[in-house]
Structures are given as C-alpha cells and as structure tokens.
C-alpha cells in the first residue's frame, strides 16, 4: 500500500467535512478500428468445400450436400494434458451436464488433449452477471462475451486489466501457427482490438441479421393464412390466430421486430444520421408509430400472457407447442428449434417471414456487423498455456468439411448421431441432452449454412430468406467504430426501456411519450447524441 | 466463549469487513485500477458527497424509496400479524403428530426459491394459468392478476405470506411454549373464556417477542427483498416493482457505477439504523424492553 493511499483514507472525514464534492463522470470512449492494420493477423483462407448456394455477403453461403470424405485438418493435439482449462460461456436453453457426466465433452477433450471445463450461463441474463464477474476480477481461463455486452462502461479498462494481450501471438504471420484462425476475415479481427492491443478471438458472424420474425408454417397452412406484407396484415393475423379460450395466442413479445417493420433506426442500439444531425430512435415518428402498433397488440391480448409477464419466459417452448404462432428470435436459434420439435411433431414447420415494411414499401433490416462473440484469455497464464488455449480455439474454428467440424457440431458417431442416407449426421437424444454450444461459441469459423434430413429444406429456406433480406440491411454510419458508452447514457438505458415497456403494455398513455423523450434528452440523451456525433467526425 | 468463535468469525468476515468497503460511496470507484480490488478501492478518486448528490437528485431513486416504504407498511399490516395468528392456532392443536405434520407442510415453502414461487403463482393465477382457464370455461373473463401494477403490492404480499408465514411461526411458537401453563389453569378455574385467556395471558406473554421482531422489521424498512421484484419487474413495470435494492442493482452494478450503488446502500443502512433507534425509544416509552435495554 502506498503512503498516498493511507493519507487518502485518513483524509476521508476531512474531505467530507469540507464538502469538497465533485460528481463522478465517465464520458465514454470510441475507437476507430480501421486504423489498426499493423497488428492484425494475416488472412489465409481454408477452402475445402465449394458452397452450392452463394448469397451476397455478408450473408453466409449454403451447402446442400455433405462431403463424402472429411478432412483431418488438425493432426497434432493442441492440449498438453495438464489442469483443465476453465471456460465461462453462455447458452440459450437448458444447461447440459458438466465434465465427467457428458460424453460430448469427453469426446472432444480427448481430441484436444486437455480437459475443457465449462461454466455455462443463461444467455438472456448474462449481461447482468458479466459486470459482476469482471469487476470482481473473477474470470476463468477463457471468457466468452457477446458483442452486444461490450459497450458497457469501463469495458476497455476491464479488457486491459484482466485479459491477455494476444497481439504477439497472432499478428501478421504469427497467426499461421493457428491456420483455422488465420481464415477469419480482417473485418472480424478489427473488432477484437481494445486499447491498441489485439485482445480477443472473434466469433465470425454467420448471420449478419439482428432478428427474424418466425411463424408456424404448419399452423398458417391449416388456417389458410399467409405471411403478411404490411403492418395491418400482421395485425389481422393477430386477430385470426388468437383464441385465448383454446389457450392460443398469436404473438410472443415482438416489440423489436415491430420497430424494424416501422423502419426505426437500429445502428448502435438505435441511432441514425438525419440531414447531418444525429438522432436517436426514440425521437423519431417511426418509433412512435411502432409503439402505437405494439401497444395495440398487447391491449387486445394477442400476446401470450406469460410473455407479458416476462418476455423471456420460455417463448421457444410456447412456440414449439403452438401456444404462440409468431415469435421474434435470432436466426441462430432456428435450426435447433426446428430439429428439436420435428422429433416431437413431424408436421412442425417454422419459417421467418419474408422481410416487409409497415406500408408495403422497401423494407429496412437491422444488421449486425460485429462478430457475435469475443473470446478472451485470462492475463498471466504464461506463454505456454496461452498458446495451448489458442491451439484449442484453432481446433474449434475448423470449417465445414473437416472431421473436427463434424465432431464439434454433432458429437461422436454412434454416440450422438447416426449417419442419414445423405451422409449428414442425424442427432439423437444424447446429443440433445449434452450439446449446449460449448465449443461452438468459443471461436467462430468461416460461415456455412448446412443441414440434413433432420432439418429438411433448412439450407434452402435459410438462404432464400437471407437473399431477400441482405440487400435491405441498414447502412451503419458508425461501422468500424467500437464504443464504450458514457456512464450517464448507460444509466439511462434501463429507465428508458422501462418507460417503453410501460407504454407498450398500456401502463402509461402514449400521450406521455413527448415528456418521456424530453426527460431522456435532459438526463443524458443529448450527451449521447454529442458522443455519437463526435465519433462520426473523428 | 469458544463456542461463539465460528459465529463471531462469520460476522467479522462477512459483515464487519465488507462494511469497511462502504467508503467507496465517497469515491468514483473504478474496479480495474491497481493489482486487485483492494488497491482499486484505494486508488480510485475521492468525490466527496458527489455520489450522494447524484442519488438525491435522481427522481427514480425517490420513486424506489417510496415503493419500498409502501410495501413495508402494507406488509406490516397484512403480513406481520399472520405468523402470530398461525402460531396461536398451531399451539392449540393438542395432537403432537398432527401439529408436526402441519408444521412440516407450512414450513416447506420457505425452502422454495423465489423463481419457483413466482412460477407457481404464474401457473395458478397467470393469464394462461389454471384459474384463468377455469374462469373462461364457465364463460367469465379472467382477471389480470399477475400483470396489474395497481394490485402488485397485494400480489407480492400474498406471495410472501404463502412462502414465509409458516416459517415465521417458529419464534412465536417458542415464545408461546414459554408461557407458564398454570396461568391458563388458574384463569380457567376463575371462569375466563377462551378469548379472555388469549387476550390476558397469551398475547401479553408473547408481547416482548412481537415488539422485538417489529422493531427489527422496521430497521429493515428499506429492504423488502430483491429476487421477488427483479423477477416480476417486466410483468408490472418499474413504476410498481422498482425497490431500493433493484434500483441499486440496475443503476449501480449493471452500469459498473459502484460508488453510486454504495451511496444508495449506505443511505439505506443509515435510515434503517435511525428507524431501529426511534422504534426502540418508543418501545421503552411503552414499558417494553425492546432490542436493547436502557
């Protein structure tokens, strides 16, 4: 302890007495990642299988057939067989059993040559825990963080304090030691730079879209309904599909997707540039219209009552069981939900609605241009251990067409899957029970949309949707800039969300919206506007 | 002396030592300075009463305080007496086997987590729950129980009663069994009715315990629990469900603004201390012993 600090402690009462008061501020920061080329890894693609369906990037290509022989891409085990590598990750859905009770982990750990021991968090509430994990400095050897949680105040400082600087391990030709990681595009690596240091391994996005609005095709077909082309048609669908006497409701909580339908801006959490001026979504007439529409859905009881209570309360279960017919979710969950429920109900069919705008005009689609996750390695593990972990991440990044990809994606043959007639693995209950995206979320891999007989027509449906949506992705004026929000703006998030919910659920009249926006401006919204305007001009 | 060592150690380690950390309420605490949390505490900048200034200027904070106090007041009237009544009823059950069975049943919900309790309520009383479907089946409209902010205070109290009223009887049962049975015999011999015996023997007999628990409850007037409100926040909105503890969580912890959160926590502690002190003074005035004697 330094003497200055002791003096500081003793000075506590004196300071307080003197009323020497200043209010704490953290005014946030932004980094332009386009200026960092020197420390980025070299790009060296791994081309194994040619895609059958190519969609304009950034949407991922689709593969219709399964390769007859798989490549053994990584022949030496990256692990040194020492103490288990502890990993904190997240998953949406039930938590699979841990090390020692999970054959999926056993199979892959044997390939890696070291045990990976996972602590899996609920993806819906991960952000709430993350701040506590970080500030307690209680991080495991490897920590996976979703990109939408990285703009919290002081995150860059947390990265500098807690996580290893990977620059020397990965920059330039150094990355060639990990050839799978070298196949990640530069754009993904750019985002992994904090404080001028390459600090994480990115999960390369295989879907650059924020949301899909899924509907139960089988239920629609039975009722002779078609997906909507306008907001009014969506509302009529809500009327037709809600039969509360029979325990059926039309919608899950679709608040976000409705905003997209009404062309509310979505960049950096809802900002856009309008005639040279930075505007937040809540100030726009589009947002007002979206609120009004969503409030109507809630008022007329078209949203399942459990989800009115808690938007995360098992919406996927309600959708699978047909208690709701329309549901917003990330495209990433599509294949799993489809596969799971098809085993229970062979008629089950889910599709995302083709994108549309409220008035039938050209739609707007919220993009997601950052990597989905970042994987950090704890500081101070030593060179050897860090390299071992990078080797394991390299293994997890093996692309479609390799043995490693199949093992990570489907588990072991005979234990977790059997091979279908088209050679594509068909998974069983052991897989469903044991797989929880453990290794999958640890590092990305070159994007590929694949599927087989357990999810019929999935690849075609997926690429058809993305082809329709990709040209409408909203241009992000702040693309390539990383943000740490000012504390004031971060503190404003929750109260504002609360007020939006109040209006949507009818607890506050829509007429109050003007004063809510005024409050927002006063309490940090205007500061936020300046913050984003400044980043734009920097 | 030696027997109290584990308890004393526990108090010291988990209550007194963390209390020292309260000084970050006067700092702009940055958890990532220095080599560890302690150094971070020391190295962060002093801001005097800056955090308190921000806190007291925040209308949301006062909303949360108001909600908390309302819930406390409501629960003192509608929750606090129930374990007493329940204990008196239980005490009058003669068969010890039957009493044991009832005790087992009513203690049990205490061990359920709030997630389970709220899920249980949702499945029974929610819009897609048993009760709503039963009402719809006979042609009535289902009331909006789980998502109505106006009746939320009654809902949380009902949940608390279901979960903890049984558990709360333990102390009162102990106090009841300490009453000298000869008093009852003498009163009965003098012709006192059941109600008179309750009023003149039972209640005065357990009055010190009631007063003691009431004072302690007042000291926690600004704590009404966290999970119960965190879990039901979306259902009724922050306007009804934001209490001091959830406010600290959202505005202090989630936004990494720990100094601010600590200031709110310290404020809560000071108010609690004042309330205990005042309530104890009042108890003394009415001739009770209170938490500590004069």
Give an overview of the whole structure.
The complex is a heterodimer of chains A (538) and B (294). Chain A has 538 residues and is an alpha+beta fold. Chain A has two domains: 35-205 and 370-453, 3-Layer(aba) Sandwich (D-Maltodextrin-Binding Protein, domain 2); 212-366 and 485-537, Periplasmic binding protein-like II (D-Maltodextrin-Binding Protein, domain 2, 3-Layer(aba) Sandwich), CATH 3.40.190. Chain A has 19 helices and 17 strands. Chain A has helices at 3-18, 103-112, 126-135, 155-162, 167-170, 186-190, 217-222, 231-241, 255-261, 285-299, 305-309, 315-320, 334-344, 383-396, 403-410, 429-434, 458-470, 487-504, 513-537, and strands at 29-32, 85-91, 116-122, 142-146, 193-194, 197-198, 201-202, 212-216, 249-251, 271-274, 277-280, 324-329, 350-352, 373-377, 417-419, 425-427, 481-484. In chain A, the strands form six sheets. A five-stranded mixed β-sheet of chain A has the order 3-2-4-14-7, with helices on one face. In chain A, strands 9-12-8-13 form a four-stranded mixed β-sheet. In chain A, strand 10 and strand 11 (277-280) form a beta hairpin. In chain A, helix 9 (255-261) packs across helix 10 (285-299) and helix 18 (487-504) runs antiparallel to helix 19. Residues 1-20 of chain A have low confidence and may be disordered. Chain B has helices spanning 5-20, 37-43, 50-57, 59-78, 81-91, 96-107, 114-125, 130-137, 152-164, 169-177, 181-189, 194-219, 227-236, 238-241, 244-253, 258-285; strands at 27-28, 45-46. Chain B is 69% helix and 1% strand. With 294 residues, chain B is mainly alpha-helical. Chain B has one domain (52-285): Orthogonal Bundle (MetI-like fold), CATH 1.10.3720.10. A two-stranded antiparallel sheet of chain B has the order 1-2. Classes of the chains: A alpha+beta (538), B mainly alpha (294). At the A-B interface, helix 1, helix 3, helix 4, helix 11 and helix 18 of A face helix 2, strand 2, helix 3, helix 8 and helix 13 of B.
């Amino acid at each position: 302890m330094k003497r200055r600090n002791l003096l500081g402690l003793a000075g506590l009462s004196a300071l307080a007495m003197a009323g020497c008061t200043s209010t704490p501020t953290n005014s946030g920061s932004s980094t332009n990642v386009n200026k960092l080329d020197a420390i980025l890894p070299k790009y060296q693609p791994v081309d194994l299988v040619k895609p059958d369906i190519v969609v304009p990037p950034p949407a991922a290509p689709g593969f219709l057939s399964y390769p007859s022989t798989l490549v053994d891409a990584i022949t030496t085990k990256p692990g040194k067989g020492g103490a288990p590598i502890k990993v904190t990750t997240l998953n949406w859905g039930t938590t699979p059993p841990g090390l020692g009770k999970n054959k999926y982990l056993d199979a892959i750990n044997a390939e890696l040559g070291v045990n990976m021991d996972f602590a899996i968090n609920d993806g819906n509430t991960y952000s709430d825990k993350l701040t506590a994990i970080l500030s307690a400095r209680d991080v495991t050897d490897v920590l996976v963080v979703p990109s939408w949680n990285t703009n919290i105040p002081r995150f860059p400082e947390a990265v500098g304090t807690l996580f290893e600087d990977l620059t020397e391990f990965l920059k330039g030709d150094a990355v060639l030691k990990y050839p799978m990681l070298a196949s990640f595009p530069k754009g993904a690596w750019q985002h992994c730079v904090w404080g001028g240091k390459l600090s994480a391994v990115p999960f390369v996005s295989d879907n650059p879209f924020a949301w899909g609005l899924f509907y139960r095709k089988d239920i629609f077909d039975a009722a002779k309904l078609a997906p909507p082309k306008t907001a009014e048609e969506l509302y009529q669908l809500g009327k037709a599909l809600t039969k509360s006497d029979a325990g059926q409701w039309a919608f899950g909580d679709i608040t976000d997707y409705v905003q997209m339908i009404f062309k509310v801006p979505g960049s950096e959490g809802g900002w856009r540039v309008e005639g040279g001026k930075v505007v937040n979504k809540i100030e726009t007439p589009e947002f007002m219209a979206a609120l009004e529409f969503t409030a109507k859905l809630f008022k007329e009881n078209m949203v399942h009552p459990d989800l009115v209570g808690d938007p995360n309360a098992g919406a996927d279960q309600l959708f699978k069981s047909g208690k709701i017919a329309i549901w917003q979710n990330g495209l990433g969950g599509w294949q799993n939900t489809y596969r799971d429920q098809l085993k229970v109900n062979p008629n089950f069919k889910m599709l995302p609605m083709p994108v549309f705008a409220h008035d039938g005009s050209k739609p707007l689609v919220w993009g997601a241009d950052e990597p989905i996750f970042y994987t950090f390695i704890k500081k101070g593990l030593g060179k050897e251990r860090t390299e071992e972990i990078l080797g394991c991440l390299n293994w997890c990044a093996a692309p479609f067409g390799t043995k490693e990809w199949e093992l990570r994606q489907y588990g072991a043959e005979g234990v977790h899957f059997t091979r279908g007639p088209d050679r594509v693995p068909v998974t069983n209950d052991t897989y469903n029970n044991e797989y929880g995206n453990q290794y999958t979320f640890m590092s990305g891999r070159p994007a590929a949309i694949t599927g087989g007989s357990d999810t019929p027509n999935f690849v075609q449906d997926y690429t058809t949707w993305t082809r329709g949506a990709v040209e409408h992705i909203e241009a992000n004026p702040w693309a390539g800039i990383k943000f740490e929000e000012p504390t004031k703006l971060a503190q404003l998030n929750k109260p504002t969300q609360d007020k939006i919910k109040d209006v949507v659920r009818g607890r506050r009249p829509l007429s109050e919206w003007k004063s809510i926006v005024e409050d927002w401006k006063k309490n940090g919204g205007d500061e936020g506007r300046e913050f984003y305007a400044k980043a734009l001009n920097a | 002396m030696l027997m109290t060592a584990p308890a004393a150690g526990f108090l010291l380690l988990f209550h007194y030592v963390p209390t020292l950390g309260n000084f970050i309420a006067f700092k702009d605490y940055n958890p990532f300075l220095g080599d560890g949390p302690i150094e971070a505490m020391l190295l962060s900048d002093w801001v005097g009463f800056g955090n308190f200034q921000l806190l007291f200027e925040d209308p949301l904070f006062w909303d949360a305080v108001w909600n908390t106090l309302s819930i406390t007041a409501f629960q003192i009237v509608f929750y606090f007496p129930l374990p007493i009544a329940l204990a008196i009823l239980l005490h009058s059950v003669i068969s010890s086997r039957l009493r044991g069975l009832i005790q087992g049943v009513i203690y049990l919900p205490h061990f359920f987590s709030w997630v389970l309790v709220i899920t249980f309520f949702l499945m029974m009383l929610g819009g897609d729950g048993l009760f709503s479907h039963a009402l719809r089946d006979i042609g009535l409209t289902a009331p909006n129980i789980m998502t109505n902010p106006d009746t939320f205070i009654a809902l949380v109290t009902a949940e608390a009663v279901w979960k903890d009223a049984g558990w709360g009887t333990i102390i009162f049962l102990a106090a009841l069994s300490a009453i000298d049975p000869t008093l009852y015999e003498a009163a009965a011999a003098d012709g006192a009715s059941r109600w008179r015996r309750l009023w003149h023997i039972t209640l005065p007999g357990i009055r010190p315990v009631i007063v003691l628990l009431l004072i302690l409850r007042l000291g926690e007037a600004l704590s009404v629990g966290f999970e119960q409100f965190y879990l039901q926040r979306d259902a009724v909105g922050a306007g009804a469900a934001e209490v001091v503890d959830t406010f600290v969580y959202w505005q202090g912890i989630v936004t990494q603004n720990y100094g601010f959160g600590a200031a709110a926590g310290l404020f809560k502690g000071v108010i609690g201390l004042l309330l205990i002190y005042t309530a104890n003074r009042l108890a003394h005035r009415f001739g009770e012993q209170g938490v500590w004697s004069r």
